[in-house]
Every structure is written in C-alpha cells, then in structure tokens.
C-alpha cells in the first residue's frame, strides 16, 4: 500500500482507547502526510503582536518546508509573507527577530517594502514588471495579542476560534505586554508525542516537582473529564465570572481548541516555587486582584498557553522531522514592568524552564521506546488520559477526512 492508504487503514483499525501505531511517530513518509494535511492546512500560532512594536519589526519561523516572515508595516498592520526572494529564491531574513526599514535580499539586493511590494531590483531590463514580483503573502490574523498564519491556499475559518478565545484573553491585554524571556529547544520526539505528553498530568507527580507546587494534577484540570461536576471548579468559575472574567470550560465541537480558567493549588497565585506572584505589576488593570488561577488555552496543532494575573506563558510547537520537534516558550509581562524591580527572569521562568527540560527527557525516552519494532500500542487511562484521547481523536478525524478526499 502507499503511505496515504496505509496510514488511513491503520487509523480505521486502531482499537478504541489505544495509542496510535508505531509508524505514526517514526515513519518519514507519514510525517510528510502530517505536514501536508495538518500543518499546511490549518491556522498556526506564530508569535505575539507585542513582539512587533513598531513598523519594520519582524519575526521569522519555519513551518515544514516553508520559511515565513511576519512583519509590521508602515501602516501598523501585521502581515505575513513567504520568506523567499522572488528573484532566485534566497531566504530573505535569517534572524528569528529583527528590524528593517525595508526587506532586502542578502543575495542580489532585491528590496521589498514592508507591505511586500517590490521596491528595487537592479538591471532587470526594460520589460521587467516589478508589480508582478512582490513577496508572496501568507494568510495572517491577530486575535487578542496572538498572531496566526496559514500557508493554505484557502485558509480555514478562524471565526469560531476567535469567538471562543477572544473573550477569555481580552481582559489580560496581551497586546500591551512585552516578552520578558524566550526559550527554544529541540525535543527529539515526534510532534504528536509532544502534544500527548502535554494533554495529561498522569506523569506530573513523579516528574515535575517544581510545577506541582502550584499546578494541580487532577484529571478535571489537565484533561477533558467532566469538570462541571466538581464543586470546587464550579465555585472558582463563579468567582472569576462575577469579576468579569470568562472562565467556564469550553471545548469546540471540532475538538481543536479549548479554554478554561483553572484554580492553582492552595494559596498559589502564580507558577513560582513559593506560589507568590512572579511579577509585582499585574498584566492588566482589567483583571482584579485575587485568586484567578490560570487560563489554560490550546489550539491544535501549534500552541498551548497559561495566562495568569501577573504574567502569561505561550508555547509554540513546530515539527522538524518525524522524530524532532521545536518548542518555543515565551514569558509575557506588562510592558512597563521593570526587570530587577518588578520581576527577575530567574524567578519568572524557573518553574517552566525546569518543566520543559523534564518533559524533553520524557519525550525523548518515549520516542526511543516507540522506535522499537516491539511497540504495538497500549491502552490509555480513562481517568487521567482523556485529554490525550481527545487530541488523538482530533488528529485521527482530521487525517481521515483529508485522506478520504
């Protein structure tokens, strides 16, 4: 069988409540199908509006075969383009972040305006039409301080996600934040293993001592177990919603995205070793002081997020190969918060830097085990791994729909 028909057959034959087959995590041809049908067809989290504070500020990212650039124009609008010169294809911007009055190719100096139009191309002859050689655009949208891109020829609908996520994120005013610290690591594991590890806290108690000082490992928090029946959660949501913060658990019908504001343990108000706030200045004056816990928001296949009263943390997942994944973590604070006075990078980042490193080791050992021809899948815990089952169900539906076409 060809890789598409083989993958489709394995999806349809997977026992309910069991992991995917070994090839989903190891086979380079199946990884190409993930790129083509998941990452090249969906909206992907690229970065934050506040990373592009003035015209000419840009960020870059690599989505499979596609190098992309996201830039704020002279008109203040954020746009995305393929980071490829229209002359002979050289990558235009190599840095992850930068600033330029115009975008200039380092190879032959073709130069583009910030709106993507071609400004200058030397000695191209009298019949050369500059208007036909601007940068190729990429779909780009901003939602409550988050920038989204899609390389699809026709981008899917984003309205449902905007309608769900924007009310939860808006009170935190993340457009008015700044990046206090950024970390990028390569995890030697398939991108689905990264997500599966994230969607459960079955492993947390034995693996994440720093995180477990403030983050509860209850299935109702980490997974999709019926949360409304938990009186403590309901009381927390009622308090937050009374203060004007949308909080109740909401999972879209597609299973692709979710938002819920969850309490932290005991008297903790932030992800620190003490449980006290990591940043003296709150992210937003629109959020009242008190125990609001953490807004947990995810959107498959590229981002999960934790938004607290004092800071926010975004995570971006990008596949590198069948057995490598790039994870970028960004810590956001109020734009006027002063390092050394309002916060220290060490305290702000300690818990999640430790957690990311612990998860990296977990995922790499998971990949080593899955690589074995002896691996034939195992059952999920219905108590602790409902979130993993929900992710695998979303992935399976998306791939089956794409391959059936």
Short description:
This protein is α+β, with helices and mostly antiparallel strands and 405 residues long. It has ten helices and 17 strands. The chain is globular.
What's the SSE blueprint?
Blueprint: H1 3-13, H2 23-26, H3 28-39, E1 44-48, E2 57-63, E3 66-72, E4 78-82, E5 97-99, E6 103-104, E7 111-112, E8 118-120, E9 137-143, E10 146-150, H4 159-169, E11 177-187, H5 191-198, H6 204-207, H7 219-222, H8 231-242, E12 250-251, E13 257-262, E14 294-299, E15 303-307, E16 312-321, E17 324-334, H9 345-370, H10 386-404
Antiparallel strand pairs: 1-10, 2-3, 2-5, 3-4, 4-9, 6-7, 7-8, 9-10, 11-17, 12-13, 13-14, 14-15, 15-16, 16-17
Helix pairs in contact: 1-10, 3-10, 5-10
Give a description of the structure:
The structure is a single chain. The protein starts with a helix and ends with a helix. It is globular and about 75 Å long. The protein is of the alpha+beta class and 405 residues long. The chain is 27% helix and 24% strand. Helix 1 (3-13) crosses helix 10 (386-404), helix 3 crosses helix 10 and helix 5 packs antiparallel against helix 10.
Structure keywords:
single chain, 405 residues, alpha+beta, Rieske Iron-sulfur Protein, Naphthalene 1,2-dioxygenase Alpha Subunit, Chain A, domain 1, 2 domains, seven-stranded antiparallel beta sheet, 10 helices, 17 strands
């Amino acid at each position: 069988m060809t890789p598409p028909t083989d993958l489709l057959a394995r999806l349809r034959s997977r026992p309910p409540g069991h992991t995917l087959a070994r090839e989903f995590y190891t086979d380079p041809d199946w990884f190409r199908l993930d790129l083509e049908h998941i990452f090249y067809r969906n909206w992907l989290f690229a970065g934050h509006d506040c990373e592009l504070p003035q015209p000419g500020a840009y960020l870059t990212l690599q989505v499979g075969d596609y190098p992309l650039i996201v830039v704020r124009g002279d008109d203040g609008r954020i746009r995305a383009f393929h980071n490829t010169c229209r002359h002979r294809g050289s990558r235009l911007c190599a840095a992850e972040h930068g600033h330029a009055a115009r975008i200039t190719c380092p190879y032959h100096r073709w130069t583009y305006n910030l709106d993507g139009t071609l400004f200058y191309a030397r000695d191209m002859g009298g019949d050369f039409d500059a208007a036909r050689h601007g940068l190729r655009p990429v779909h780009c949208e901003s939602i409550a301080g988050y920038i989204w891109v899609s390389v699809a020829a026709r981008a899917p609908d984003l309205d449902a996600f905007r309608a769900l996520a924007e009310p939860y994120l808006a009170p935190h005013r993340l457009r008015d934040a700044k990046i206090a610290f950024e970390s990028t690591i390569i995890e030697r594991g398939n991108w689905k293993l990264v997500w599966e590890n994230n969607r459960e806290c079955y492993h947390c108690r034995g693996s994440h001592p720093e995180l477990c000082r403030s983050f509860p490992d209850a299935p109702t928090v980490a997974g999709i177990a019926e949360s409304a029946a938990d009186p403590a959660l309901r009381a927390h949501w009622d308090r937050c919603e009374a203060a004007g913060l949308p909080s109740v658990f909401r999972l879209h019908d597609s299973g692709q995205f979710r938002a819920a504001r969850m309490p932290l343990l005991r008297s903790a108000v932030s992800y620190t070793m003490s449980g006290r706030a990591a940043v003296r200045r709150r992210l937003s004056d629109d959020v009242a002081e008190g125990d609001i816990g953490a807004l947990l928001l995810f959107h498959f296949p590229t981002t999960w997020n934790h938004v607290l009263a004092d800071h926010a943390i975004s995570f971006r997942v990008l596949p590198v190969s069948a057995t490598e994944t790039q994870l970028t973590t960004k810590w956001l604070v109020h734009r006027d918060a002063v390092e050394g006075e309002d916060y220290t990078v060490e305290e702000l980042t300690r818990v999640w830097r430790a957690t990311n490193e612990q998860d990296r080791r977990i995922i790499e050992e998971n990949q080593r085990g899955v690589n074995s021809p002896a691996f034939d899948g195992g059952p999920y815990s219905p108590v602790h791994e409902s979130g993993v089952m929900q992710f695998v169900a979303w992935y399976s539906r998306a791939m089956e729909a794409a391959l059936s076409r």
